[in-house]
From TrEMBL:
TM annotation in the entry: 42-59, 90-110, 122-146, 166-187, 194-211, 217-234
Protein name: DUF4386 family protein
Signal peptide: none
Keyword Transmembrane helix carried by entry: yes
Keywords annotated in UniProt: Membrane, Transmembrane, Transmembrane helix
Keyword Transmembrane belongs to the record: yes
């Protein structure tokens, strides 16, 4: 393409050259185009904090899962009320960061996997929203404690709550984490030329180990091994 600069005497620039300052502007534009935007970098950084916060939550949680007998669950809260509130707050922050992780998956892989990426992101987001719902119920359980002991009648109340419709309903979005993580592993495997093969395996292993179905040490390890995997995927996809 011929670009011309007309000055007083009608000088014409050689073919293929740019007007004064255009070359620098084009180079800067190219550099910016290859650099991820600030919102995407922030989203990626937030995504990395999700497994970090889940690891911290499990490591500090003094109570068993809410589905355990009311006497065990409320008794553990009564014994460690401050630790329970702190750990549950970490769980809520982790769920919020998990939604950011889901959004990052959609944004990052939307062009290379336009059908799979939105499905993975929506399923993961539903799973993390299910976690947030359970956090609300757990904080209500904390209110059933008074002066280091369960309030009168609280055992019956909590037994009714965790066997009633509330847990049945919020369990459905929480269950979406299962296909969400399996499909996330498939998505990462599909992009192994960019992120490598190992993150896909770690996602499956970490999700199974961190499900809460195993001793606390296994659960903590499950979330902990996800930290380097998510960090690696975010770092490679931001650079790609």
């Amino acid at each position: 393409m011929t670009q011309q600069i007309t000055m007083g005497a009608g000088l014409t620039a050689p073919q293929g050259t740019f007007a004064a300052g255009e070359g620098a502007h084009a180079s800067a534009s190219t550099a910016r185009a290859g650099r991820p935007s600030a919102p995407r970098r922030l989203l990626g950084a937030t995504a990395v904090t999700a497994p970090v916060l889940f690891t911290a939550y499990v490591a500090t949680d003094p109570a068993p899962l809410p589905r355990e007998p009311a006497a065990d669950f409320l008794g553990a809260i009564a014994a460690h009320p401050t630790a329970f509130v702190v750990s549950t707050s970490l769980q809520f922050a982790a769920a919020a960061a998990g939604v950011a992780l889901a959004a990052y998956v959609i944004v990052t892989f939307a062009r290379s996997a336009p059908r799979l990426a939105p499905v993975v992101g929506v399923l993961l987001a539903l799973g993390y929203l299910g976690v947030a719902s359970f956090v609300g119920a757990k904080l209500v359980a904390a209110d059933l404690i008074l002066d280091g002991a369960p309030r009168a009648g609280s055992l019956e109340v909590w037994s009714a709550v965790h066997t009633g419709p509330f847990f049945d309903i919020v369990s459905w979005p929480l269950a979406m984490a299962i296909p969400g993580n399996l499909l996330l592993a498939a998505l990462l495997w599909r992009h192994r030329s960019i992120v490598g093969a190992w993150p896909a395996a770690v996602v499956v292993a970490g999700f199974v180990m961190g499900s809460g179905e195993f001793p606390d040490a296994v659960t903590i390890l499950g979330w902990a091994i996800l930290v380097p995997a998510v960090f690696h995927v975010v770092r490679r996809t931001l650079r790609d």
